[in-house]
Structure formats: C-alpha cells, structure tokens
Amino acid sequence: PPDTALLGRSTWTFLHTTAAYYPLQAPPQAQSNMINLLSSLSLLYPCSWCATDFQKDMRRNPPDVTGREGLMKWLCERHNEVNTKLGKDKFDCGIQNLDKRWKDGPED
Ligand code: FAD
Question: Where found, per UniProt (predicted)?
C-alpha cells in the first residue's frame, strides 16, 4: 500500500507551491488547466478513501481558480478539512502566512 503520509506531504507541497506561483489573475486557459488538474487528482489519487473524501469536499466547495490568492485560500481550507479529520491543528489561511510558508521561505 502507498505511504499515505509521504504521499500526502508530497502532494500538498506540489499543490500549495503550484498555487503560490499561479497567475494573480488567471487567464481562461490556466483556469481550465487548474480545474482539470484538481478533478483528475481527486479521481486518480492513490489512496482511495482520501480520494473519495476529497471528491465530496470539492463538490461541496468548488475550487476558486480565478487567481493566486483565491486558489491558495481554497486549497488551504481543503487541507484544513483533512487536518481536522486527522485531529491536527488548523493552518492560518491568511495570504501572508501562506506566502511565508509556500512562496517566500520554504522551511522543508
Ligand atoms: P501535511 O498535512 O502533509 O502538511 C505538510 C505541510 O503543509 C505542513 O508541515 C505545514 O507546513 C503545511 N500545511 C499544513 N496545513 C496546511 C494548510 N491548511 N494550508 C497550507 N499549508 C498547510 N491522510 C489520511 O490519513 N487520511 C485522508 O483521508 C487523507 N486525505 C488526503 C487528501 C488529500 C487530497 C491529500 C493531498 C492528502 C491526504 N492525506 C490523508 C494525507 C494528509 O493530509 C497528510 O499529508 C499526512 O497525514 C502527512 O501529514 P504531515 O503532518 O506530514 O503534514
């Protein structure tokens, strides 16, 4: 079976970093690429119960792909849903805190 912790850390790193460098105001092509990425991820993610819950969460909360800040905040909230499910602390989804972690100064 997959190492869900390593897979999760790596996937969140990819997603938050990609969002941090997403256009401030995304053109239509970038928006549809991001919708495709997130939908495909929710279908293909190789931890089946994670994928099922992520699909449900995405249906309740459709992604904001209009630009960098909205996308980062949306992803942070999705990650917090998982944090809560796993009994972990919530992350501060303010843009300054997100930039500090994922754009300006990665710590790991
Ligand atoms: P992670 O949660 O992987 O976080 C990595 C780093 O991101 C943290 O050190 C912190 O600096 C930063 N961070 C934390 N929270 C946020 C946030 N809200 N916004 C921005 N940055 C943040 N695991 C399960 O056991 N069951 C599941 O159902 C499950 N579902 C998942 C669904 C998805 C879509 C993904 C990508 C992962 C899922 N995981 C699931 C894995 C889980 O979220 C963690 O990745 C894993 O438990 C390892 O946790 P960690 O403590 O190393 O840090």
Answer: Mitochondrion intermembrane space
Q: Which ligand 1 atom sits nearest the alpha carbon of residue 41?
A: 34
83 Cα to the center of ligand 1, angstroms: 6
ipTM of the complex: 0.99
Three-state DSSP string of the chain: CCCHHHHHHHHHHHHHHHHHCCCCCCCHHHHHHHHHHHHHHHHHCCCHHHHHHHHHHHHHCCCCCCCHHHHHHHHHHHHHHHHHHCCCCCCCCCHHHHHHHHHHCCCC
State pLDDT tens for residues 70-80.
999 999 999 99
> Ligand 1: which residue has its CA nearest to atom 35?
8
pTM of the model: 0.96
